[in-house]
């Protein structure tokens, strides 16, 4: 759902930019409470993983594909505020290095793909967590539902923005029906990817899943007068696997996905591009200002072999995302430590 330049008029693009900037600023402040010694290194990995998986378009209907948005996944793994930052970093890297997503539409993309998906996804996840018994199964099911709902929610938000300032005179109900229908299907794929990823991390280091913290129920002393909660239950056993193997393993998976598996992704247009083509407003798309960049189009300029070019570009993208995200997350983490020390 990377919105290109030209789909929205200046007032909506500028307004979305203000919303995106304000949302990121708020999340930078709130992320200080989420980025601890476990979350900070995980956040960089999550951003890189989202970048890699977004290269893997999967077919959802005849002539249409979809890809991960990642807001709900990141919210469950590292917290909602940090999730917005993760996806925002990915979108910045894609926009400036790979010419994916318009620069004037950057505010729209951050608002839709980072803020809406993370907020909606986390809200759904928390609703499931509070109503279902606290267990790993509930976390996985909540992750699936959070991701499933977050995608059509972003599509609905796109429709509202198009109604406010779309550059094509198209009936908004027609856009809403088309966007909603295809993005429900994409949401199913997003839900499966999110549930699989969360369950994989839960299997090796459940304490690294932000949404799973506190799963262990407090000890209860049963007496003749009823149940009495014990304030200080015995500590959970130390995890058998350190955080470094998890980070290295996750990084290798991201590199493999971006550098090798991405070559086999669906070449069909994604949901937004297909709707734009069917409804005719793709004619308003403007060329990307950085379309001649060395990594534009997810290929390395000057490398003739298509598979090698795409693989190198994917690996470069993972590296850039890790460096950019890591710098931001550890800076926020350091400020938290400085404030605590003061």
Automatic annotation (TrEMBL):
Q: Which Pfam family is an annotated match for this chain, by its short name?
A: CbiM
- Biological process annotations from GO: transition metal ion transport
What subcellular compartments does it reside in? Cell membrane
Q: Name one GO cellular component term.
A: plasma membrane
**Chain segments annotated as transmembrane:** 40-62, 68-93, 105-125, 137-164, 246-265, 311-332
Give membrane topology per the record. Multi-pass membrane protein
Query: What UniProt keywords apply to this chain's record, in alphabetical order?
Result: Cell membrane, Membrane, Transmembrane, Transmembrane helix, Transport
Residues of the PDGLE domain: 245-334
- The principal location of this protein is membrane
Query: Which protein, by its recorded name, is this?
Result: PDGLE domain-containing protein
- Which species is the source of this protein? Planotetraspora phitsanulokensis
């Amino acid at each position: 759902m990377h919105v290109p330049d030209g789909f929205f008029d200046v007032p909506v693009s500028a307004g979305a930019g203000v919303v995106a900037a304000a949302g990121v600023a708020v999340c930078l402040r709130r992320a200080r409470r989420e980025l601890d010694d476990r979350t900070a290194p995980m956040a960089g990995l999550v951003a890189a993983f989202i970048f890699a998986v977004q290269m893997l378009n999967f077919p959802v209907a005849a002539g249409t594909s979809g890809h991960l948005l990642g807001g709900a996944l990141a919210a469950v793994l590292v917290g909602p505020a940090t999730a917005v930052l993760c996806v925002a970093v990915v979108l910045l890297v894609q926009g400036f290095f790979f010419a994916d997503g318009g620069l004037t539409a950057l505010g729209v993309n951050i608002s839709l793909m980072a803020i809406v998906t993370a907020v909606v996804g986390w809200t759904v996840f928390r609703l499931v967590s509070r109503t279902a018994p606290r267990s790993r199964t509930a976390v996985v099911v909540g992750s699936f539902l959070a991701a499933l709902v977050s995608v059509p929610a972003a599509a609905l938000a796109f429709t509202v923005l198009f109604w406010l300032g779309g550059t094509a005179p198209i009936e908004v109900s027609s856009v809403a029906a088309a966007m909603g229908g295809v993005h429900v299907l994409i949401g199913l794929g997003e839900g499966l990817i999110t549930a699989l990823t969360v369950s994989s991390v839960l299997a090796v280091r459940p304490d690294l899943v932000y949404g799973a913290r506190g799963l262990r129920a407090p000890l209860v002393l049963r007496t003749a007068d009823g149940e009495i909660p014990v304030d200080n239950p015995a500590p959970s056993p130390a995890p058998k696997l350190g955080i470094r193997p998890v980070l290295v393993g996750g990084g290798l998976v991201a590199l493999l996905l971006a550098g090798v598996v991405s070559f086999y992704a669906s070449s069909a247009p994604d949901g937004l591009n297909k709707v734009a083509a069917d409804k005719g407003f793709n004619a308003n798309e403007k060329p990307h200002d950085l379309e001649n960049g060395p990594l534009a189009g997810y290929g390395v300029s000057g490398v003739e072999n298509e598979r090698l070019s795409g693989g190198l570009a994917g690996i470069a993208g993972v590296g850039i995302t890790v460096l950019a995200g890591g710098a931001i997350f550890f800076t926020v983490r350091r400020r938290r430590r400085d404030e605590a020390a003061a």
